Amino acid sequence: MKFKNMKFKPVNVAVLGPEGTFSEIASKKFLADECINGNFVYCNEVDEIFELVENQNVSFGVVPLENSIEGSINLTIDCLREYYKIVEIYKDIILDVRLCLLAKKDLEYVSVICSHPHAIAQCRKFLKKLNRNNDNRFKISTVKSTALACKIAKDDETVAAAAAEEASEIYRLNLLFKGINDYKSQTRFIVIKRKFTDANKISGKKISLIFELENKPGALYEILREFSEKDINLTKIESRPSKRRLGEYFFFLEFEGNLGNENTGEVIKNIKGKVKFIEILGNY
């Protein structure tokens, strides 16, 4: 994605590939919002994007964090924990997800419908009805991305893909059905970059952090009470296995505020005295 009036060198941005994924669409929105020239580096997995950012092979990475229908992307949260010393969240992007059914030829040639598992889940009712109206002849299959499904459909007329409408032009596929989501859907992506200093950005409206608790009664309550007493609104909290032993978890938490605010600073200071581990992932 290039802007004609930009004179500086384009940055490399790692996204989930191949070309035509919602990750790429979100990345284009990010580049346009920031007025940055960018070249895309396509990856197969979320953790591959984190590795590229860590090794400074790219300036930014764009990964999905949560979907309004299917919830959090666990691998992204796990990677934020794994790479917290090196990678931080720069900003987030909310993208409306409108799925379409695409194929090389008409529906009568199709016997397989494939897409990313989250995309299949988001149009489950549509696919069930479509199958029922066509003698249950469609096999539903999952692949690593919506764009990969399009790539398969491009080479096989018996395969249809649930994907973004933009992908129909890239892969020269027919648009069989528009808006096949069962519900209106949004996916939130985060832009990650490498940390270059120990100082966190103190401008922003949202803070993301991770922490681990002592194994004792009321430990989580003590943390949440700190936010309540300062009238700070939590927007997300998620627990994930520590991967060290059964029953041990870390928490991913987000709240409204910025690190330059006195109340925010006091809450974080108080929390530090009540947890085994805490790390701020970004203020954006």
TrEMBL record:
Residues 12-194 form the Prephenate dehydratase domain. It is an enzyme of class 4 (lyase). GO terms for molecular function: prephenate dehydratase activity. Keywords: Amino-acid biosynthesis, Aromatic amino acid biosynthesis, Lyase, Phenylalanine biosynthesis. Pfam families: ACT, PDT. GO terms for cellular component: cytoplasm. One of its GO terms (biological process) is L-phenylalanine biosynthetic process. The keyword Cytoplasm does not apply. Its EC number is 4.2.1.51. Transmembrane segments: none annotated. The keyword rRNA processing does not apply. Residues 208-284 form the ACT domain. InterPro entries: ACT-like_dom_sf (IPR045865), ACT_dom (IPR002912), Chor_mutase/pphenate_deHydtase (IPR008242), Preph_deHydtase (IPR001086), Preph_deHydtase_CS (IPR018528). Pathway: Amino-acid biosynthesis; L-phenylalanine biosynthesis; phenylpyruvate from prephenate: step 1/1. NCBIfam families: PRK11898.1. This is prephenate dehydratase. The lineage of its organism: Archaea, Candidatus Altarchaeota, Candidatus Altiarchaeia, Candidatus Altarchaeales, Candidatus Altarchaeaceae. The gene is pheA.
